[in-house]
Predict the structure.
Amino acid sequence: MYTHNILLSKLKGDIMVFKIKIQNLIIIALLVITIFISSFVYYDQNLANTVSATDKKFIKYVEFNVPYSLMDYALKCDVKSHSTENKLNWIELIAYLASKYGGEFSKYKAKHLDALIAKLNKGSTMEELTKDMKYYNYYLEAYTAVLGGLVGEYEIEQPVKDEPGKKVWVKKYGLMGFSPIAKGYDYSHYDDFGDSRSYGYKRKHLGNDLIGQVGTPIIAVEGGVVEALGWNRYGGWRIGIRSFDKKRYYYYAHLRKNFPYKKSLEVGSEVKAGDVIGYLGRTGYSDTENTNNLTTPHLHFGIQLIFDESQKESNNEIWINVYNLVRLLNRNKSETVKNLETKEYNRVYDIKY
């Protein structure tokens, strides 16, 4: 009887232990299932966010290959028509021809632009003429991002004839973007966009080199906000300026050793088109700040297009060929004067827009 009771107690104890183990296994299984479900939900949510981000509808590629002759002629037609009933828009004209040519401007002839303008002057609208053009809206948005801040109404100071030192404000319409090189300073350049560069790593040249003399005043092409100011191992002393509409990021690099910038500039500063922002030099290609490692003094000038903030500093940046644009801007140069006390250069004629 005693032995029977001992066996019975042991059996009950084993059953109790077994129940506890089963309960623990159930708890562990529930925890594993909960973690799995939570992880799946987290992954699914992040996947949804990723898909949502990648599915954003914005332009991801632009090849700006508009010839200088077309920009020049379209701009002249725009300015000439400004005070007429049939006001033309030079960017719309260029976008129309881009759609007509499929982006191949080797087909461009001035008579094609004349024919388009004739239709518009006879009462046709751009909406009517482009309704069957599949890519017109793409080209219009892309070229507006490139050229949108360069033409418009503005006021600029001008000297008064026969009254030295006196200036008056004059209202104008036309090209209000400036050459990146100040008036009176020679420079040379060629179409070197896309050329190979090897310092640091093999890469393409994403700008245009304007070769000139050390100390040449560098000009803000367009008004905007300084977003970058300081040393970069590739660009040396450089300035990055974002246009007010945030579509363009202007990059000016290889500025002068010891005195690269306008002293008042800092990140967040606002500049106007035609302002002096820095001075041409040959810094860069070094991890050591303030190093002259370039043989030829020049300004590296580039423009990045930004349709979405995710493109700003990423592997999906859009840099355009600015060679023909620099040629166009060359007709509008900012006159500067040196302050002998501060050694700074300042613009002579201010602008309002």
Residues 1-8, 34-53 have pLDDT under 50 and may be disordered.
